[in-house]
Amino acid sequence: MRVLAVETATEACSVALEAEAGLIGRYAEVGRGHTEELLDMVRAVLAEAGMPLGRLDGIAAGIGPGSFTGVRIGVAVAQGLAFGASLPVIPITSLEALAWQAIGADPAPGQDDCHALACLDARMGEVYWGCFGRDARRGIRALGALRVGAPAEVRWEGALPYRAIGRGFEAYPELKGLSGATLAPRDAAALPDARATARLGALRLGLGEGIDPALLKPEYVRDKVALTEAERRVPK
């Protein structure tokens, strides 16, 4: 499967292409200005692969949760590319991509690292989080609903042990004490990468899970963008 992936749900902006020759990608932490950076990355990745957009089999779109603006940009660009080339899209959540970055590869002999808790900083004193297991067919399976809440609400919902990953752990150090978790320093600083989105997208497109781009929707998880004036005045 030849799948182009875009991921802009956080301060990281990334694009990747999964094709017969392998996986190539671009990744940068840009903060703002995702649109210009994203389109430049798309052009660069396609040019490096020598792959016209029309030869792709689908577009994998990072749909969040994350920055509302970033998620909207990624979804809009994925839809535009897919409409223009008459391609299906494959929605991949940013937390699924993070989980794949932790446990997507086969475990080393004697290790049992097929479960992951992915966590991103949601601002306003909250985190987005989800529990996942490795799945032979779809790459990653969710062990429950994606959630948003205070760090104290984060709970593991699967078998032990598990890998922890995502910048939520860096933003809220108290999360590093979760029972049963293994957290590598690089995983605590991790953000979703389109390389993982492309891998998952290719697997799921092969299973017939591509959808019409008109049906692609952001996964915000919460509908609140900022604190009210009264909430900002409450002492912490």
Short description:
With 236 residues, the protein is an alpha/beta fold.
**Count of structural domains:** 2
Determine and state the CATH class of the largest domain: Alpha Beta
Q: What's the architecture of the largest domain in CATH terms? A: 2-Layer Sandwich
Radius of gyration: 17 Å
Uncertain residue ranges: 225-236
Task: Tell me the number of helical segments per DSSP (H or I, 4 or more residues long).
Answer: 7
Mean pLDDT across residues: 91
Largest sheet: 6 strands, mixed
Q: Strand portion, in percent?
A: 25-35%
Number of extended strands:
11
CATH topology of the largest domain, by name, is: Nucleotidyltransferase, domain 5
Write the CATH homologous superfamily of the largest domain. ATPase, nucleotide binding domain
How far apart, in Å, are the first and last alpha carbons? 50 Å
Question: Percentage of helical residues?
Answer: 25-40%
Structural class, please? alpha/beta
Shape: globular
Please explain how this structure is put together.
By secondary structure, the protein is of the alpha/beta class. The chain has two domains: 3-93 and 192-215, ATPase, nucleotide binding domain (Nucleotidyltransferase, domain 5, 2-Layer Sandwich), CATH 3.30.420; 95-188, Nucleotidyltransferase, domain 5 (2-Layer Sandwich). The protein contains seven helices and eleven strands. It starts with a strand and ends with a helix. Mean pLDDT is 91; it is low at 225-236.
